[in-house]
Amino acid sequence: MSDTCPSPFNSVHEECRETLMIGYINLFADPYYVERKGLYIGQGTTMLSRAGIFRVSEGVAVDMVHRVYKLPSFRDLLEGEIFLQNLPSIITAHALDPREGERILDMCAAPGGKTTAIAILMKDKGEVIAVDRSHNKVFEIQKLAAEMGLKCITTYKLDALRSVQRMSESDRKDTPQCGEQVESNEISDSSAAGIEEMSSTAIGGTQATLEQLRNENRISKAELRKNNRKLKNGPGRNNCLGGRVEKSKGFPPNSFDRVLLDAPCSALGLRPRLFAGEVTVESLRTHATYQRRMFDQAVQLVRPGGVIVYSTCTINPGENEALVRYALDTYKFLSLASQFPRVGGPGLVGCYQFSDGYKEEWLRHGEEDLVQRFDPSSSLDTIGFFIAKFSVGSKDV
Ligand SMILES: C[S@@+](CC[C@H](N)C(=O)[O-])C[C@H]1O[C@@H](n2cnc3c(N)ncnc32)[C@H](O)[C@@H]1O
User: Fold this and answer.
1) Residue 343 to residues 88, 221, 250, 259, 379: CA-CA distances in angstroms?
2) What ipTM is given for this predicted complex?
3) SUPFAM superfamilies this protein is in (predicted)?
């Protein structure tokens, strides 16, 4: 490689030269190198079959022999000192704009990336309540907060769909009690996870209740079998990694200054997405329904004058712009707030009519620049992501 040679590798360190030479030769020897538009990162030996790489969820796929970049693995590196996060996630914590001394709720917090970022922005002063729905996930948040030495984070196991504290027993005379008949739309509009939540609630009740639901075709045979297994075998080892995790019964209305809802979603913005499950129009709509139900809880928990930030890692407008439309049309005391920093692009304006007649309403003109949509194919080169920030006005309206 001469100095005048137009090498793409001229600026790299001497010790990588040998590896780079191989890459450089490849550039010309491989006629498809440019067409593939891949980024050459070195050479290695595959340890799994091609199919295996896409199927196995953990393990070594390629043992790198020559690397262009001599980057160390970030696993266990500088534990407690650094936590890798993608750009839109960092922006989400900043968009929430948490202040010292405030009480913040992170409704779907595990593994705690945004929770810890929020606590750091608050200089560890105030209260960050981080909840997630499983013991292990809450334990992950606790571990991360402890590693980072953050004291203002309190964690709870809580289903975000039930995050508003229930009424006391005496107030509950008029509400359906456990095992009582519930409105059928409570079930039909629930997502897969919603169904899971329902049936696990039923575990606490009687088996007759489950059988009853099954007879009415309201839960699948598979769900019934799963619950039978749970009843027989207990919660299973995956339910406890260790550590003490406190359960919450929910929080009183208007009890938070700011709420972050980093909602579970179809994750269509994630890269690489090696283990994509089946995505159907129906499953996307189910996510949207689930997110709205969580958002309804967030609205109740934030105080008038407070802030809600809603985010997802999907590019599906049904879970993003359509959620914003739902929020603004349903709760007249909410308004879109501008975000800082502003790095993502504008949201989608308009609507979409599906062939089955279902219509999805997105943003209206003037609203698009108040949200941030991160397009994974844009030059910004981030994962697909969406952030909306709402100011909460007087709830008397
Ligand atoms: C997008 S991830 C959150 C990522 C997290 N905010 C972070 O930055 O590290 C969504 C989370 O929602 C949680 N989740 C899903 N359904 C839930 C529910 N009903 N209640 C509470 N958490 C839920 C999942 O366990 C998952 O950890």
Assistant:
1) 8, 47, 34, 21, 12
2) 0.99
3) S-adenosyl-L-methionine-dependent methyltransferases (SSF53335)
Atom of ligand 1 nearest to the CA of 262: 6
State the CATH architecture for 87-164+249-392.
Answer: 3-Layer(aba) Sandwich (3.40)
Mean residue pLDDT across the chain: 79
Crossing angle of helices 192-204 and 207-215, rounded to 10°:
140
DSSP helix/strand/coil, 154 = strand
Question: CA-to-CA distance for 215 and 161, rounded, in angstroms?
Answer: 26
Tell the residue number behind the tokens 């008397």, with chain if given.
396
CA angle 59, 385, 71 (to 5 degrees): 40
Does the structure show a pLDDT above 70 at 303? yes
State the pLDDT confidence band at 177, using cuts at 50, 70 and 90. very low
Task: Identify which of 201, 305, 303, 310 has the alpha carbon closest to the alpha carbon of residue 252.
Answer: 303
Phi, psi for 330 (deg, rounded to 5): -85, -40
Q: How many residues does the chain have?
A: 397
The residue assigned the tokens 């619950």 is: 227
**Residue 31: pLDDT over 80:** no
For residue 45, how far is the Cα from the chain centroid? 34
Contacts of 161 (CB under 8 A, 6+ apart): 194, 197, 290, 293, 294, 297
Distance CA 69, CA 373 (A): 31
Q: What are phi and psi of 230, to 5 degrees?
A: -60, -40
What does DSSP say about strands 351-353 and 359-361: parallel, antiparallel, or unpaired? antiparallel
Report pLDDT digits (tens) over 7-16. 333 333 333 3
Q: Is the CB of 112 under 6 A from ligand 1?
A: yes
| Rounded Cα distance, 212 and 217, in Å | 9
Catalytic-role residue among 152, 178, 265, 313? 313
341: DSSP letter: S
Closest by Cα among 309, 301, 303 to 389:
309
Ligand 1 pocket residue status of 111, Cβ below 6 Å:
yes
Distance 312 CA to ligand 1 centre (A): 10
Indicate whether this model's pTM tops 0.80. Answer: no
CA distance 263 to 312: 6
- Cβ(12) – ligand 1 distance below 6 Å: no
64 pLDDT tier (thresholds 50, 70, 90): confident
Amino acid at 65: V
